[in-house]
Amino acid sequence: MRPQGRAAKIRELEMRIADLEARLPAHSVPPTMIAELEDLEEELERLKAAQRSDNPCEGQVVTFG
């Protein structure tokens, strides 16, 4: 997957997770909702890991002395 496509998919998954979390009832959460949330979170982590491997220095501070 191209970096731009991956970034868009990450944003989409983050929005879907936020939406699902907002819809979770306080009690008696249906198992299907829990499974969906876990699937989305796993996919998000997989994409973020792939993104990190594409940009191993991203987020690191580089100093020159």
Give a verbal description of the structure.
There is one protein chain. With 65 residues, the chain is an all-alpha fold. It has one domain (3-54). The chain has 2 helices and no strands. It has helices spanning 3-23, 31-54. Helix 1 runs antiparallel to helix 2. The protein starts with a helix and ends in an 11-residue tail after the last helix. The model has no long low-confidence stretch (mean pLDDT 89).
Bin the helical content: 55-70%
Per DSSP, the total helix count is 2
Order of helices and strands: HH
Tell me about the largest β-sheet.
Answer: none
Beta-strand fraction estimate: under 5%
N- and C-termini, Cα separation:
37 Å
Principal-axes geometry comes out as: elongated
The number of domains is 1
Q: What does the radius of gyration come to?
A: 16 Å
E-strand count: 0
Structural class: mainly alpha
Low-pLDDT regions: none
Task: Estimate the mean pLDDT confidence.
Answer: 89
